[in-house]
Amino acid sequence: MKRIVVFCGSSLGYKAVYKDAAIALGNYFVHHQIGLVYGGGKIGMMGVLADAILEQKGEVVGVIPKLLKKEEVVHPKVSEMIVCKTMSERKVIMSQLVEGYITLPGGFGTLDELFEALTLNQLQIEQKPIGLLNINGFFDGILTQIGHMIAEGYIKPEHKKLFLVANSVETLMEKMHQYIPLEKNSIIQKVVR
């Protein structure tokens, strides 16, 4: 993979383990010559991840909506900054630039981005690997909810294969490199029936 988008928070959260995971992911990207595409911020998890890559002269492409392009938010040192009109346009641009997605801890915006990527794969508009770096069990509640949605018949069991989960960078990246998309049209056919 040449580029991966990473969805993550504009906050650092309360535990250093999340910041450490962002740095570890950034180091992995640099050592494996993977470019980062992300939300363009210099604060929170976004800033830590971008800085870890930029300090080692790696590629960082920010995509930020005009409404968020403020001096205290936007990262001034990225390799390239793409300014777009809306949050929706941001996700489209990010998708066009990458071969895969990774989600680190974050808030509502991070989850919005994750679930849009999952939906694009579910509908087979895309067939890119989607990884959750489940540091400190951060995504356990969401994974439980998805399990409940499967049990209640709102998500097909095979849809669980649309995302990859690991609690270490190396394991997640190995899964991403080995990802095999679901068979074309199998999901849509089962939804329509």
Please give a structural write-up.
- It is built from seven helices and seven strands, in the order βαβαββαβαβαβαα.
- The relative contact order is 0.15.
- It is α/β, with parallel strands linked by helices.
- It is 42% helix and 16% strand.
- It has a single domain, classed as Rossmann fold (3-Layer(aba) Sandwich).
| Share in helix | 40-55%
CATH topology name = Rossmann fold
What low-confidence regions span 5 or more consecutive residues with pLDDT below 50?
none
Can you tell me the CATH architecture?
3-Layer(aba) Sandwich
The tally of structural domains comes to: 1
Q: Note the run of SSEs as H and E.
A: EHEHEEHEHEHEHH
Q: Tell me about the largest β-sheet.
A: 7 strands, parallel
Give the CA-based shape. Answer: globular
Name the strands of the widest sheet in spatial order.
Answer: 4-3-2-1-5-6-7
Distance between the termini: 35 Å
Amount of beta strand: 15-25%
Total number of helices? 7
Q: Any descriptors?
A:
alpha/beta; globular; seven-stranded parallel beta sheet; Rossmann fold; 7 helices
Brief account:
The chain has helices spanning 16-31, 44-54, 87-97, 108-122, 140-151, 169-177, 186-192; strands spanning 3-7, 35-38, 60-65, 80-84, 100-103, 130-133, 164-166.
